[in-house]
Amino acid sequence: MNDLKIEATQSTPLIETDAGRGIIYMEGDSYPENSFEYYSDLVAWVDQYLKEQTRPLSLELTLLYLNTSSIKVMMDIFDELEEAHHAGREVTVNWHYDLDNERVAELAEEFKEDCSFAFNIIGQE
Amino acid sequence: MFAPDLYELRSRFDDEKILLCFNGPISRSLIEEIGNALRNYLKTEQASPASALDVFAVYIELTQNIRHYATRSGVSGADTATVVVSLKEGHYHISAGNLVRFEDGQVLEQKVQTLAKMDKAALKKIYKEQLRKPRDENAVSGAGLGLIDMARKSTAPMTCSLKNIDGAKGYFSLSVQI
Question: InterPro entries from the entry (chain B) (predicted)?
Fold first, then answer.
């Protein structure tokens, strides 16, 4: 399957997928006006990967600010991971944040509340 | 030649501790540029990373709500936004206003007043409910999650006002304190 490599802009994060290793990287801020449209390729990729592959999937996130429509898209993706997890798939989210900014940890924490798979919130100096 | 009294304008900004003000048609790129200026300002003012992020988040939700409303409603002039960020008594105040259909303004006013009465736990509960609502339903009332998010971030109940312009239209403004 094709991988995605979407460069970061001021209002959108770097997005990279690696189907071979089962990893999605996202890094930066996310506040596009049209989040649902903007993330449709990523949502489709996750969908296809979970359907066609049997390998684990891990999300490596270094996201800082998400507007509410991006939060909704991320929740949709996490819901899909949750479903895969219940079906026996190995899924992990590692959310990296700067220890100086507790808001990012709080945001990740609220997502984590709704997920029963491995969801690690990792503070960095 | 007409020369606006900029000194008087500036004095008013100084008196009201306004650190950023914009008035005009707002575009996606303007939202980004002004947002960038706001972030840089907050950094030089040494606001804590958490409050800087809260101020930025409220600014984005307010201005994007206006953009979405202008597109969805088709109300002419609705995309002309007035945005003010001020710092008073240790709190940042982020306010934004635009033209709306008067009845849309009344619905918003009602929502803001309902949110203002809720405590943190109740706000979190409806935030999570809204997050779980199917997207289509959400697209119709786009401001749903954004308003609740701002109410959660606001350190005092959000305040709003609705001024009747000509019966059909009103000027709606919303203010959030961080």
Answer: DUF6272
Chain B residues with CB under 8 Å of A123 CB are none
Strand partners, B162: B172
Q: Which residues of B touch A101 (CB under 8 A)?
A: 49-50, 53
Residue reference for tokens 């898209």 = A73
CATH of the domain at B17: 3.30.565.10
Taking CB atoms within 8 Å and a gap of at least 24, the contacts of B110-113 are: B111/B143, B111/B147, B112/B147, B112/B151, B112/B158, B112/B159, B112/B160, B112/B174, B113/B160
Residue numbers of the domain that contains A59: 5-124
Looking at the 3D structure of chain B, how many domains does it have? 1
Summarised one tens digit per residue, pLDDT across range A8-42 is: 999 999 999 999 999 999 999 999 998 999 999 99
**Does ipTM top 0.85?**
yes
Residue B1 is assigned to a structural domain of this protein:
no
Residue B105 confidence (pLDDT) above 80: yes
On whether the CB atoms of residues A74 and A65 are closer than 8 A, the answer is no
Question: A71 and B32 in contact by Cβ < 8 A?
Answer: no
What CATH number does residue A100 fall under?
3.30.750
Locate the chain A residue with the closest alpha carbon to B150.
A68
Q: Is A88 helix (H, G, I), strand (E, B) or coil?
A: coil
